[in-house]
Amino acid sequence: MKKILFIILAGSVLLTSCKKFLDINSDPDTPQNPDPTSVFPVLISNIPGAGGERGTGGVQFDALWIGSYIQFWHAFNSSQNQFTWDAHGHNGHTADRAAGIWRATYFGVGKNMEYCIEEGQKRGQWDVVGAALAIKAYLFQLTTNYHGEIIFHDAFKEDSLFFRWDDQKEVYKGVDSLARLAIAFLDNKEYNPASLRLTRGDLTYGNSANFDTEIARWKKFAYGVLARNFSAIIHKPQYSADSVIKYTDLAMANGADDFVVPFEASRTADANIFGTYRDNMTPIRQSDYIVRLLDGSVFAGSNALANRDPRIRHMLVASPDTLTYSGNGGYRVTIPGLGDTVPTASTRRRVPVLWGDSLYSNPGNANFAAKSGKYLFQNKAVMPVMTYSEMQFLKAEAALRKGDATTAHTAYKNGINGHFDFINRTSYPRNQSALFNQTPLSAQERTAYLASANVKQNAADLRLSDIMQQKFIALWGWGFVETWTDMRKYHYWDIDDVQPGATEQVYSGMMKPVLLFADNNGKYAYRVRPRYNSEYVWNIYMPEIANSPEYHTIETWFSTSQP
User: Fold this and answer.
1) Which of 33, 318, 486, 508 has the fewest CB atoms within 10 Å around its CB?
2) What are residue 436's DSSP bridge partners?
3) Angle formed by the axes of helices 126-147 and 168-187, nearest 10°
4) Those residues with Cβ within 8 angstroms of residue 318's Cβ, 6 or more apart along the chain or in another chain
5) Residue 97 pLDDT > 90
């Protein structure tokens, strides 16, 4: 007995000694309990996939692939991996392709976000807690819309090897609760006077005129998450157009409230993934759909100069033969399933890379010194996460579904104007990198476009397709999951279900891919497979249906009429 007691006591001494040894040898430059304001920038920078999340992390990495599903862009030829996604397929588990949102939510942001929430509450930093909860609500809304069923209640659970999945309906309820909780914390002004404020680590709204404005903008972001949450469930008994309108009214009031992620482009991890330095966009070319939306073909029925949207010169790229091709200024296209169909006699590829007019290769690969790129495809260009323009189109859609054409028409025009303002904006966080090319859109150009056949002049003439396709333009290049959510809730090819007797498709200008992926059995993609090097390899609770070759074509809950 004495021998056993000696061993126990000796062990206690050893443990105490180890603790003292570790204390003595702790690194003062790497604090174990950093202030949440110093951790908070990681939450923002990992949304697009910067901040160290190389390879598969973040929204922008996944956008490279699902951008083909929604016809933002396509592969220029069949030798590109992108070509499979043009056919609504996937590349299996190759290099965890299209797994960036999963990785950002559960790894890049995950525990850092939980730390900001938990430690922020201990320190009385209600602003940090509220903003972190708003990001959490946004990420889970994003992740469930992207993947379908996901890990929600078990996410970030300590001391667990396996994590149970939750149905999408349950995740939607959870997002609603998280957004409301975020707003409640942001409303709490009884801060600990000894603690640091959110502004110190806020890359998005930290440059606001004052602290109250910064907090108000975070609340608007949380309300925007609620608006997205309600807007997606149009087929459900619980759908409420009034709720969508209410939350969009509480969200972004103008472009200054836009939630954008800035880049300084002084190093690889802080450069826009779509910029020339990172060289991710070379296989991609602008789609037939976006070109015809902007050149007047879809809305006005003709791509004559008078019908051309002035935004086209800032957003898209023209070929060298700008005066001779189809009369639209040289804006050539790729076709889903065909790519850049160059005539046999041609010695030149037709569609330029997205970095600039008449360019067929990257003008600034691994070179920060080169000032190159266009629109959102620049090293220092911001990545939008949520905008005033988007909120107005959400409101327009809801109002039209409600039968209030007047409110819908006003919001529709606000959405178009909001996107003009977005392109013309000169003040962005950190680097002030403008998105317009050389000169902003003029007042005369805006007035002429709003009075053209591209824009419905009367509320009585407004159709759902007008709203959703103008929204497509405003979200092109950044609103990937949001646009895909819209397309899936209208099942890609649905006829307008708002106007009685309508025969026009909601996405009337979009063409069907020339072919569909072999495993699809004639169906379109409705979800992306979760991260292979996580769920398939390590989690025994992976749903059995995930092993089906057709898994990515199974509809998610939000797009069905299932209660």
Assistant:
1) 33
2) none
3) 160
4) 329, 330, 331, 352, 357, 358
5) no
What residue type is assigned to position 120 of the chain? Answer: G
Residue whose structure tokens are 């920078």? 45
Determine contact, residues 235/563, Cβ cutoff 8 Å: no
Closest CA to 455 of 256, 327, 251, 310: 310
Among 357, 379, 361, 381, residue whose Cα is nearest residue 370? 379
Enclosing H/E stretch for 210: none
Closest CA to 498 of 369, 408, 386: 408
DSSP characters over 51-116: TT--SS-SHHHHHHHHHHHTTSEEESSTTSTHHHHHTT---TTGGGTT-HHHHIIIIISHHHHHHH
Q: Which two tokens stand for residue 250?
A: 């509480």
The torsion region of residue 503 among left (phi > 0), alpha (psi -120 to 50) and beta comes to alpha
Structure tokens at 213: 């404005």
CA neighbor of 266 nearest in space, from 47, 50, 434, 56: 50
Going through 332-489 in order, the beta strands assigned E by DSSP cover 373-374, 377-378, 383-386
Q: State how far the Cα of 459 lies from the Cα of 464, in Å rounded to an integer.
A: 12
The pLDDT score that the predictor gives to residue 191 is 96
pLDDT of 51 strictly over 60: no
Report CA 315 to chain centroid distance, whole Å.
17
CA–CA gap between residue 456 and residue 412 (Å, rounded): 9
Structure-token pair, residue 465: 């397709």
Write down the pTM of the prediction.
0.92
* C-alpha distance across the termini of the chain, in Å: 65
pLDDT in tens, 371-386: 789 999 999 999 999 9
User: Is pLDDT above 90 for 205?
Assistant: yes
CA distance 382 to 401: 33
Distance CA(214)–CA(59), nearest Å, equals 24
Q: Is 537 exposed, middle or buried (0-12, 13-18, 19+ CB in 10 A)?
A: exposed
CA distances from 475 to 57, 84, 268, 482, 527 (A): 21, 23, 25, 8, 20
Q: Which residues contact 551 (CB under 8 A, 6 or more apart)?
A: 527, 529, 545
Instruction: Tell me the DSSP string of 100-123.
Output: HHHHIIIIISHHHHHHHHHHHHHH
From the list 325, 322, 350, the residue with the least C-alpha distance to 74 is 350
User: Is residue 53 pLDDT above 60, yes or no?
Assistant: no
Q: How many CB atoms lie within 10 A of CB 122?
A: 12
Beta bridge partners of 377: 374
